[in-house]
Amino acid sequence: MDTYHQAGPSISTPDHRPHEHGTRNSKPSFLSPTSHLSRTILMIHHTLQMPWHCQHWTIQQLISMRSSSSKEAEVLLWEENTKSQLQFVALAATLAAGVVGASVAWSAADEAHWLVLVLWYGSLVMSLYCVIIAFHLGILFSAFDIRPDRAERILDMLKQRDKDEPRWRSQWVLNMPIALFSWSVISYLVGLALLVVEPLWKVGWEKDGWIAIGFLVYFLLSTSFYFIVGGTIHGRLLPDLAHQSGVTWP
Predict the structure, then answer these.
(1) What is the pLDDT of residue 34?
(2) Are 204 and 117 a contacting pair, CB within 8 Å?
(3) For the chain: N or C, fewer Cβ within 10 A?
């Protein structure tokens, strides 16, 4: 009988231990509007700077690898992927510059708000400099290719001298072509939106006004998809990958 009373309660006794705080999956039970706003602003900032954060995590992972043989192979693979990205972004920026140049020649652009041409000319300048910088970085990697210890030298370029973290200046230089291309496309799209939407406050609900409404629907949907994808990559996919690899996600 005593055994029954000792064993019985242990079967159904609920666990009243407090949940551990600070774990990766723990979430606050309540977030103030200020917290929601700050998280939203941070997510938008990270989405706009997505290439920077992705590159930072990749370089940090290379630096944190312990096996010298596998580290050399991964560094060389990263070099080849980076050179391919530079070639692709240079080609894309060239095409974007052609689109912007053709748009500037539209007759509607002369009658549009002055800000439209400012945004388009700015987009054109960023696209051209994207091509130039990508070309210079390609020359830089060609200088590493002729060295027998190129993996070690590339890693020295990426890593800070006093600690195992990515070097900010190197990362900024490597990220610049993609950043310029992204800002160029965004600048062109904002100018295009202003050009198409301007008739709404000039002619009202006529043909051009309905065209502006249709454009806004596509523009807002595409913009929301862009931020959803960027937020998912930065807020979920890359942090999970970094956690599995034992690398601290910024």
Answers:
(1) 63
(2) no
(3) N
What is the rounded CA–CA span in Å between residue 209 and residue 218? 15
Cβ atoms 187, 129 nearer than 8 A: no
CA distances to 53, 56, 197 from 194, in Å: 30, 34, 5
> Tens digits of per-residue pLDDT, 30-48?
445 566 666 666 666 666 6
Q: Mean pLDDT over all residues of the chain? A: 78
On the CB side of 101, CA atoms within 13 Å amount to 10
Phi/psi of residue 65, nearest 5 degrees: -65, 140
Rounded CA gap, 127 and 92, in Å?
9
Dist CA 198 CA 192 (whole Å):
10
Handedness of CA 160, 42, 177, 146 (dihedral sign): positive
Q: What amino acid occupies position 193?
A: A
Model confidence band, residue 191 (pLDDT cutoffs 50, 70, 90): very high
What is the residue type of 15?
A: D
- In what helix (H) or strand (E) does residue 176 lie, and over which residues does it extend? helix 168-197
- Two tokens, residue 37: 């706003």
Output the pTM of the full model.
0.72
- What is the C-alpha to C-alpha distance for residues 27 and 44, in angstroms, rounded to an integer? 20
Spell out the residues 6+ positions from residue 170 whose beta carbon is closer than 8 angstroms to its own.
157, 158
By the 8 A CB rule, do 99 and 187 touch? no
User: Which pLDDT belongs to residue 181?
Assistant: 94
Handedness of CA 29, 32, 38, 44 (dihedral sign): positive
Whether the CB-CB separation of 158 and 59 falls below 8 Å is answered with yes
What are the tokens at 143? 């200088």
